[in-house]
Amino acid sequence: MHTTVSKDGTTIAYDRRGSGGPALVLVDGALCSRAQGPMPELAELLADHFTVYNYDRRGRGDSGDTAEYAVEREIEDLAAVIEVAGGSAYVYGTSSGAALALAAANAGLPIEKLIAFEPPFVVDDTRKPMPATFVTDLEARDPADAVKYFMTKGVGLPGPMVTMMRLMPAWKQLKAVAHTLPYDARFVTHNGQGRPLDTTQWAAIDVPVLAVFGGKSPAWMKNSVAAVATAVPGAELHEVPGQTHMMAAKAIAPVITEYSTKPR
Questions:
Q1: Coil, strand, or helix at residue 86?
Q2: Which of 24, 115, 166, 184 is the 20 to 30 Å CA partner of 255?
């Protein structure tokens, strides 16, 4: 484990895999960390081509946190990781981490290319919109209820499926990081109201962006990614056949490698 310090003094923990290749930073979605979720396996698969930086977003794992949260702090955290990675990096973000990465690119962080996998926006009527009070609703709940509320109202899973998840060993780990769910909600709620995306919100992005979706993902998710590809200047749209929001590391790794290494 390595650490760096974000602009506000918060310690951010990260792992580094590989050596000699260009820097690639992985940005997790909700309820995941550098020890829990898809990124550890993905980092290993990519280590032959990149120097991979897999970090704990604030409030998770070995990273610190502050009482006052703002999305700007998470952008600064990503900036701190990119700085230790050499001052610029390729970035792969998944789910709400993709929304964070898009905001970071729009803020002018030194990102070489961005691969954004299924930012979970709701842009039409193919599913119920997220509650406008999503952030405050999550903040008001205890960990178990917050996870259930996020899974049903945010991810769109059926209630009985989430009830079954409570019986799984991973439920305890999910509850341990449930206090960070309002952080993720801040990156997605304004784009989760069932309305077309505001095309001006990413107008400042001037780096190549690949918007990726799984071929077996639900229609609302595919529509979200297509809308992002249209809204982000110059973005490309890419489907990974046979995959869902639970993207297999072995399926996305070659997509990341090919897009990052091809000439602009």
A1: coil
A2: 184
Full 3-state SS string of 213-254? EECCCCHHHHHHHHHHHHHCCCCEEEEECCCCCCCCHHHHHH
- The arrangement of strands across the sheet holding 111-117 comes to 2-5, 11-17, 51-55, 23-27, 89-94, 111-117, 209-214, 236-240
Among 80, 39, 35, 81, CA closest to 177: 35
For 188-213, b/e burial (b = at least 16 CB within 10 A) is bbbbbebeebeeeebeebebbbbbbb
Whole-number pLDDT of residue 171: 81
**Helix (H, G, I), strand (E, B), or coil: what is residue 263?**
coil
Q: Which residues contact 83 (CB under 8 A, 6 or more apart)?
A: 4
Three-state SS at 156: coil
Q: Which single residue is written with the structure tokens 């789910």? A: 95
**Angle, alpha carbons 223-192-104 (nearest 5°):** 90
Rounded average pLDDT over 184-209: 96
What are the angstrom distances between the C-alpha of 40 and each of 4, 27, 54? 19, 11, 7
- Contact status, residue 85 vs residue 11, Cβ threshold 8 Å: no
pLDDT band for position 90 (50/70/90)?
very high
Where helices occur in the chain by DSSP H, the ranges are 39-46, 71-84, 96-106, 134-139, 143-149, 159-165, 170-176, 181-188, 219-231, 249-261
H/E run at residue 15: strand 11-17
Say if strands 11-17 and 51-55 run parallel, antiparallel, or are unpaired.
antiparallel
Residue 122: C-alpha distances to residues 132, 193, 223, 236 (Å): 12, 6, 8, 19
pLDDT at 168 over 80: no
